[in-house]
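Researcher: Before we compare anything, I want clean individual predictions. No alignment, no superposition, just each chain on its own. First chain goes here; please echo the sequence and then give the structure tokens.
Model: Echoing the first chain and its structure:
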Amino acid sequence: ENPVYIIEDIMREELGLTDSTIDTSSFDLSGLTDLANIFADTYTNVKFAFSQNKFINSKDLINRMCKQILSWVFISGDGKYKIKTLEKSGWSANKTIDFNDCNLKSISRTSLGGVRNDITINYNKDYGQDQFLSSVNPTADATSKGTDVGGYNVSGGLKLKMDADTLDTDTATKLAEAYRDIFKDRKIIIDFDCGRAKYNDLEIGDIILFSNWDSDIKIYGASMGTDYYIVSS
């Protein structure tokens, strides 16, 4: 039922991968801890179930599963397959980057086109009828829908509909809430280079902090504080 271990099982049973090529610690961190964080529930309550009744490319299947748990699978620098899951709270930094080691290129925001604050999840698929029998649509985020400085003033909200491989109403609801909470805001993007090799071990999905940030360089008018950033590229 745990979607992270469904992915690992596909990699083992269908692709023939073993412990020598799977970073099991990343799958355990994702499946037992980060999954609970993003779904705001115990990991045992996150229940997926589906039938794959036709041949499909394994990468497409794994990517489909990853989208439903806000995760991604990638090949690490050590040649092993890893999984990373986004977090909603309780962040801790994998590394702190000294601003003096940075060549700052730009500060920007993600596009409005990436904001979604009204999420519908279709679930409980009937394979005979080839359609989903149920859906959930938790309350849209009121702040980002608003007309004040914190809102985007889009009539009806910024909607997203997604199909989920689950039969469980609570899992579908928690998935919708997770997407809403993650994607309801534009995110700040800091583009920079580091010339020192001590940061070369950072990977996509790692969390970073900055130290010694130049106080004259504001982040959209605000001083850099103890803000966490995710390595996205």
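Researcher: Okay. Second chain, same rules.
Model: Second chain and its structure:
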Amino acid sequence: GDNKNFLIELNLENTRHNEIQLIGNGEWCIELGGRDCSLQIHEQKLLEVSLTEEMMESALVEYETAGQIPQAKVMQTDLGLLRSMSKQAEKFGNALKLDSVSTFECIVEGNEHYFMEVNTRIQVEHRVTEMVYKLEFTNPDNPEDKFTVESLVASMLLLKCYGQRLHCPKRIPRFLSGVEARLNAT
């Protein structure tokens, strides 16, 4: 309201810190799955775990096959949450006309996610995304020529060289998940 003497904040107790990797050229933007980086100490990430729809779908089938219905329900909820964050991130990147690699960050509590920020730069944990996806590009000079790129830094170079001539790549799964652990001296 008009009274500037009060600040009301939402208190989130049991949260996770999830990120969605984005890449775009100003005309298109796609998401490359997520990362859970909730395990931190002194605001430094200790563990990064990639979150992919493929991984969650596979786990969901395993739980259902084993008759582990409560676990399957949790996985179904988490899969829906990842899909929602990914869709929102991609929409955000398209609206921004994102022309590089960026990270869409959210706080997750229970079955809800809350947008936190977008880092419009590559982050050190991008390697976790590279473990699970590669990109298939079409040569802007020859539509019959396709090639794959496993590095987001190399993809950034392609974006810089070809800009809007570069067509939206196809996301190709490499592995179901990836993990990166960091050692922090304190």
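Researcher: What stands out in the second chain?
Model: The longest strand covers residues 15-24. Additionally, The longest helix spans residues 69-96.
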